[in-house]
Design brief:
Layout: E1 4-7, H1 12-32, H2 35-50, E2 55-59, E3 62-66, E4 72-75, E5 79-84, E6 94-101, E7 104-111, E8 115-121, E9 128-132, E10 136-139, H3 144-151, H4 161-198, E11 205-209, E12 212-216, E13 222-225, E14 235-238, E15 247-255, E16 260-266, E17 271-276, E18 281-285, E19 297-300, H5 305-316
Parallel strand pairs: 8-10, 17-19
Antiparallel strand pairs: 1-2, 2-3, 3-4, 5-9, 6-7, 7-8, 9-10, 11-12, 12-13, 14-18, 15-16, 16-17, 18-19
Length: 318
């Protein structure tokens, strides 16, 4: 009996789906720039990669599926048959749990011919069907013939021509469906990125009352209490002259080339809550007291900065 290591190459569909999903998730993380929301797609990508097959081996009396999440062993003395997969094996395929293309095809599936089966594949054109007394497993070694020779189990009889022809049509439909899914995901991702990059709402709406200021922003709305602001220090800042108040680091917020909102650190080192639509003049609302995230400076772009400052002092300065 031969032994050896066998690669697990990706087929075209796996490469396309993996690339599109990864780029989409990364773009979501970058543009939202929220630690909690950004962590979820990263965990999905890492988990999907960890459970995908990285390679196969026939060694120490077992077939080994190598994965970052832990290798899977199939004892050779339990293998009843091993053969190259046929198109008919995929007829009526239903995914019960697992991945249908992102970093491979793995998990629990059911087909009309094979019944309930476990997949550890990355390339359907190199699929091998391994049957044991307890389960049916599909693998995809880069060298199919070498792998079958290393396993050394007898092969099952092939299906008839009619079944193979029908199965070929089924596989074609599966490929078309997979391509359509990849296209939809890709277009959705591009649409999302385009929408985010072109979002330009202008200065946010606000409501000023004797008790506080309500800023109506899509991503980071807030109500700032009058008692938390040093009303006498509210003033207009010309960013062309006082460039230190321009944002340097985004800590948690939204930003594109047209609009910024959320929490930032200014070039002068000050922490601030910013609502800026790229105008040259904004209003600074300094906090009362220091050292609290709830008392950061607020920089707000409004249509009439001087009028806004007058209104604040009229409402809040007693």
């Amino acid at each position: 009996m031969q032994t050896g290591e066998f690669q697990a190459p990706y087929d075209g569909t796996t490469k396309a789906i993996s690339a599109v999903v990864a780029v989409f998730f990364l773009l979501v993380t970058v543009f939202l720039h929220n630690a909690y929301l950004g962590l979820l797609p990263v965990l999905v990508l890492v988990g999907a990669y960890a459970y995908s097959a990285r390679g196969y081996a026939v060694e120490n009396g077992a077939i080994v599926v190598r994965r970052l999440a832990g290798s899977v062993r199939i004892p050779l003395d339990e293998v009843q048959s091993a053969r190259r997969a046929e198109p008919g094996d995929y007829l009526g395929c239903i995914r019960l749990w697992g991945s249908g293309g992102m970093f491979g095809y793995y998990g629990l599936f059911r087909t009309a011919k094979l019944g309930r089966c476990t997949w550890y594949m990355t390339d359907r054109s190199r699929a091998v069907v391994v049957r044991t007394g307890a389960k049916t497993v599909l693998l995809s070694p880069g060298d199919v013939e070498g792998f079958l020779a290393a396993v050394g189990a007898p092969a099952e009889s092939p299906g008839d021509a009619a079944g193979a022809e029908a199965a070929a049509r089924s596989v074609f439909r599966m490929k078309v469906a997979a391509g359509a899914i990849a296209l939809v995901v890709g277009l959705t991702g591009l649409g999302f990125v385009a929408g985010v990059s072109r979002y330009a709402p202008g200065p946010p709406q606000y409501v000023l009352t004797p008790g506080g200021l309500e800023i109506h922003d899509r991503f980071y709305p807030v109500t700032i209490g009058a008692a938390s602001v040093e009303a006498a220090g509210v003033r207009v800042v010309d960013l062309a002259e006082e460039s230190g108040w321009r944002p340097a680091i985004r800590t948690s917020g939204f930003a594109n080339s047209h609009y910024r909102s959320g929490f930032f650190r200014a070039k002068n080192g000050r922490r601030m809550r910013l609502y800026w639509a790229n105008g040259t003049r904004v209003v600074l609302l300094p906090p009362k007291g220091e050292g609290s995230d709830k008392n950061d400076d607020v920089l707000l772009e409004v249509g009439d900065p001087e009028g806004f400052v007058r209104d604040v002092r009229t409402e809040w300065v007693r």
